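Sequence design from tokenized structure. All designs in this work follow the same two-part layout: the structure record, then the generated sequence. An example of the structure record is given first.
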């Protein structure tokens, strides 16, 4: 399945060296045959989490694709000899893929977020992609699903005929959910973090100049300081520590 796949280590995470077009084409090829697969979108928080949890390391490194989200992650790949590596982030990947799915008549499923966010998101997507076929959406409760509930949503997704399932649960919850459902859900699962809220407008995304200069994390921190201070200040510091440790070690 991954004959042409090229990955490099970013800390302990296997991250794909990949272009936007390759990412979309690869997902599309799996979706066309309803292959059960999952894609991790890896930012600094993700790659630091890989160093802290063997379980999470296995989940990321067993993914069918792991894209470099976050400017520092893409920078680390460029420093290893792949100078043209771009940042392949969740919100933009979802938006670009919706355009592709509309053009190819592929069906999508939305999993995650609140019901309010999903309702707004569905309306926004319909405005921008009027021919996009959204065959289902589900807002899971803030608790583990029972075995019966889990089987019900698996059946719902599989019966919908969706080629891709866009998963917005946040890290590491969405990655764990996708790994647990590989082989059960007959579609490609892509974990896109806050993408549902960004596209619905329930959370404002950073201005383009901040995105392009690797400062989207700062915008999010300023927007939700109580919830995100530890993630960004602690994990960003740990990322720098690990990078310096690797450099000194060499």
């Amino acid at each position: 399945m991954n004959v042409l796949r090229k990955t490099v280590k970013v800390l302990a995470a296997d991250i794909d060296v990949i272009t936007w077009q390759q990412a979309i084409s690869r997902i599309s090829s799996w979706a066309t045959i309803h292959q059960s697969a999952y894609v991790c979108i890896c930012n600094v928080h993700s790659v630091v989490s890989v160093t802290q949890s063997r379980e999470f390391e296995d989940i990321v490194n067993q993914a069918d694709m792991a894209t470099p989200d976050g400017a520092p992650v893409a920078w680390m790949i460029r420093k290893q000899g792949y100078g043209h590596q771009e940042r392949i982030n969740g919100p933009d990947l979802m938006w670009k893929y919706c355009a592709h799915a509309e053009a190819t008549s592929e069906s999508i499923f939305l999993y995650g977020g609140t019901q309010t966010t999903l309702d707004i998101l569905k309306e926004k997507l319909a405005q921008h992609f009027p021919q996009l076929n959204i065959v289902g959406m589900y807002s899971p409760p803030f608790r583990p699903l029972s075995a019966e509930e889990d089987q019900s949503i698996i059946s719902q997704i599989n019966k919908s005929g969706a080629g891709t399932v866009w998963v917005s649960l946040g890290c590491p919850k969405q990655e764990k959910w996708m790994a647990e459902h590989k082989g059960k859900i007959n579609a490609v699962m892509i974990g896109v973090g806050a993408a549902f809220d960004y596209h619905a407008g329930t959370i404002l995304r950073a201005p383009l100049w901040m995105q392009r200069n690797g400062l989207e994390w700062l915008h999010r921190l300023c927007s939700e300081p109580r919830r995100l201070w530890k993630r960004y200040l602690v994990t960003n510091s740990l990322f720098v520590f690990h990078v310096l440790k690797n450099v000194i070690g060499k």
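DSSP finds twelve helices and eight strands in the chain. We note this feature because it recurs in several other targets discussed in the main text.
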